[in-house]
Design goal:
The complex is a heterodimer of chains A (about 425) and B (about 230).
Chain A (H helix, E strand, L loop, with lengths): L4 H17 L7 H4 L4 E11 L3 H15 L6 E4 L5 H4 L7 E9 L1 E8 L5 E2 L3 E2 L4 H20 L8 E10 L2 E10 L6 E2 L7 E6 L6 E5 L6 E6 L4 E4 L7 E6 L5 E6 L6 E6 L10 E4 L6 E6 L5 E6 L6 E6 L11 E3 L5 E8 L5 E8 L2 E8 L4 E4 L7 E6 L5 E6 L7 E5 L4 E4 L6 E7 L7
Parallel strand pairs in A: 1-2, 1-3
Antiparallel strand pairs in A: 3-4, 4-5, 4-6, 7-8, 7-30, 8-9, 10-11, 11-12, 12-13, 14-15, 15-16, 16-17, 18-19, 19-20, 20-21, 22-23, 23-24, 24-25, 26-27, 27-28, 28-29
Chain B lengths: L1 H15 L4 H22 L14 H4 L46 E2 H4 L7 E2 L10 H16 L3 E8 L6 H21 L7 E7 L10 H7 L1 E8 L4
Parallel strand pairs in B: 3-4
Antiparallel strand pairs in B: 1-5, 2-5, 3-5
Helix pairs in contact in B: 5-6
Classes of the chains: A mainly beta (about 425), B alpha+beta (about 230).
Chain lengths: ~425, ~230
């Protein structure tokens, strides 16, 4: 008993040291759950559709399964029960049968009973069937695998074409995989930077219809376009908070491209935009809100090359420029910040050895990580609602296309095609309750 | 007698200090805020500076302004000659009935007055005009606008493709605004000049050479002269 006393005396010091100096344990998101494997076997038995149609359905299903959280789908070369009887503990086996005019799906896991889902009827029309498969597998991911996937989301983007010698840009909307693309605005003018409002239907965008850029709102139900802000000069680069209550944008109303802020919650006639950040000799550019709406990340070149800074949105009306914190330091030309819905990461574009690449800043570790490595310029990253996928666009002289990448799996795929320069992608927002 | 006098003074003292419960609660809240700020300051937290509101304008900005401006002293300094704050015109020019956009009736100024409204060029990632020939052009444009007070000028700011689209929108804004500041310094009425930025969205030349980029980093002019019949 007496021997134990010295150790007992040390305990208060150990407790004090732990309380004062020990950092909270942080586990990176990627290491929490290793990507699990989905082994998928397809069987086409007496389908009512032609072979190339069933092949297309098979491709859509496999692609969708590959975009459910961290899961990776692997297609088995042929349908066989022996193939499916895996011993992997963290894997799932999925049997997909395309029979007659429906898709049947059966899932089984190591040492567990298999589960058959209610068959999904197919119409034979690819646009509708594609949507149905997205919805079906989204529900499957949520209920069976426990993952809220991006399969049921859509993406807005601007598509620029040259028409009769004049550049025209309209807002388009597509499924998460770039398919079912549909032109939304028909303004025959220049429209950029669309962003969904929280109701996931209406959106704000920048329109040059008045000659100078103005922030407009598109109302989905009435297809009506109306001005969002009444302010002199140009307004561009809008950012809406997740709850839709606040809007940040860049305007030259005061004579410089400054950061402005407008509370959309305030319905008072006296509600005016506030100049939020301005510095002599500096240019402010794109911004984004933190998911809780309390902070704003934005681009400024007031210290040289454009970098990303952070400011706390003042709780009360302030008349002086708020203090800001530099958060990106590794590379130059940092632009287009996008805060992940889980609040842990910030994606942005940075010039890396002459090419604009996508980088991710981790708020916990304060580390900046390059996540794209190709030869194409990539910019305008936007997080999808699962905080795992990023949508961005390439920007080359020859063309601009939309890309979808999985940050942890480090996979990237072009999802758009067709005529035009597709830019400024923006997936659906999600309300995040932290 | 002494006892009565004492009770009288005591009762006056008590009623003199009497406050309503809401007043007392307000005082407690004020004291609480001061204590909170002191504690925050003691532990090095950023404490919002407080400032007495002197007028109604402080809440809603000046009546004539459609926004609430920052009031930092360094934003008003005249040392930044190339970066003076010249507010944008409140009203846009009235468009003829058939024209859709507010500037659709503006015509390419270089086609009509090519010797005056020459396209100006900028160096990479810069918004300041440095070429002497460009500064001479500014003088000519200023002279023209002063001579034609019914003329309205639209300055378009453009960039090359090397920076990101977002940053280029802001840079184009800055380029156009810089030209506007130079013109107003020459005595042109700022209400005659409008600016717009297209960033890298409307390139003049689609090549990737230095000459192509030089062509795209530009300030282009469009002009409209009101009918003065």
């Amino acid at each position: 008993m007496k021997r134990a006393q010295p150790f007992c005396l040390l305990l208060p010091f150990v407790f004090l040291y732990t309380a004062l100096f020990a950092k909270p344990l942080y586990i990176p998101v990627a290491s929490l759950e290793k990507p699990s494997l989905l082994k998928v076997a397809f069987q086409k038995s007496s389908s009512a559709f032609k072979r190339n149609y069933t092949d297309l359905l098979q491709k859509i299903i496999l692609n969708d399964l590959n975009h459910i959280g961290d899961f990776s789908a692997e297609e088995l070369p042929y349908f066989s029960r022996q193939n499916l009887n895996t011993k992997r503990k963290n894997g799932y086996e999925i049997q997909v049968t395309i029979a007659q005019k429906q898709i049947e799906l059966r899932i089984s896991q190591h040492k567990k009973r298999s589960l058959a889902l209610r068959p999904l009827p197919m119409t034979g029309e690819i646009a509708q069937d594609r949507k149905n498969i997205h919805r079906f597998l989204h529900a499957f991911g949520k209920k069976i695998l426990g993952v809220d996937s991006i399969l049921n989301t859509t993406i807005l983007y601007a598509n620029r074409v040259k028409k009769r010698g004049k550049w025209i840009s309209e807002i388009w909307r597509s499924d998460y995989d770039g398919q079912n693309a549909q032109k939304i605005t028909h303004l025959e003018d220049y429209a950029t930077h669309p962003q969904f409002l929280p109701n996931q239907k209406d959106f704000v965008f920048v329109s040059y219809q008045e000659g100078v850029p103005k922030i407009m709102e598109f109302l989905w139900d009435t297809k009506h376009v109306r001005k969002k802000i009444f302010l002199r000069g140009s307004q561009a680069l809008p950012a809406i908070s997740a709850d839709g209550k606040n809007l940040a944008f860049v305007s030259d109303a005061a004579g410089r491209p400054d950061l402005f802020f407008l509370s959309l919650d305030n319905q008072s006639a006296y509600n005016k935009p506030r100049q939020l950040f301005s510095k002599p000799g500096a240019t402010q550019a794109s911004s984004c809100f933190s998911p809780d709406g309390k902070k704003l990340a934005f681009v400024s070149d007031w210290n040289g090359s454009p970098k990303i800074y952070l400011l706390d949105l003042p709780k009360m009306l302030r008349f002086s420029t708020p203090k800001i914190t530099l958060i990106t330091q590794k590379k130059r030309q940092n632009t287009s910040p996008s805060w992940s819905p889980d609040g842990r990461k910030l994606a942005y574009s940075a010039k890396t050895e002459g090419i604009r690449q996508i980088w991710v800043y981790d708020f916990e570790t304060k580390q900046e990580t390059q996540v794209t490595f190709g030869k194409k310029h990539l910019e305008n990253p936007k997080w999808a609602k699962d905080s795992k996928h990023i949508v961005c666009n390439s920007d080359m002289l020859q063309g601009a296309e939309i890309y979808l990448m999985h940050v942890d799996k480090k996979t990237i795929q072009q999802i758009s095609n067709g005529v035009g320069y597709k830019k400024f992608p923006s997936p659906e927002l999600t309300r995040v309750h932290l | 007698m002494k006892q009565i006098l004492f009770l009288l003074i005591f009762s006056i003292f008590l009623t003199g200090c009497q406050r309503t419960s809401s007043e007392a609660w307000e005082d407690v809240k004020t004291a609480g805020r001061y204590v909170k700020k002191s504690v925050q300051a003691l532990f090095g937290f950023d404490v919002d500076e407080s400032r007495q509101i002197v007028s109604y304008d402080d809440f809603n900005g000046p009546d004539h302004s459609d926004f609430i401006p920052l009031q930092d002293a360094d934003l008003q300094k005249s040392a930044y000659i190339q970066d003076q704050m010249v507010e944008q015109p409140v009203k846009l020019p009235k468009a003829p009935a058939k024209k859709k956009g507010k500037f659709d009736h503006f015509v390419d100024a270089s086609k009509r007055y090519g010797d005056i409204f020459r396209t100006l060029h900028f160096s990479t990632d810069n918004h300041v005009i440095t070429e002497k020939k460009d500064l001479i052009s500014i003088d000519k444009i200023a002279l023209f606008l002063k001579k034609h007070p019914k003329a309205h000028l639209l300055i378009e700011g453009h960039c090359d493709e090397r920076a990101s689209a977002d940053y280029n929108i802001a840079l184009g804004m800055r380029r156009a605004q810089h030209v506007r500041v130079l013109l107003t310094k020459k005595g042109v009425n700022p209400q005659q000049i409008y600016t717009v930025s297209y960033g890298k969205e409307k390139p003049l030349s689609l090549g990737g050479s230095n000459q192509d980029r030089q062509k795209n980093r530009r300030a282009h002019f469009k002009l409209f002269i009101e009918d003065v019949r």
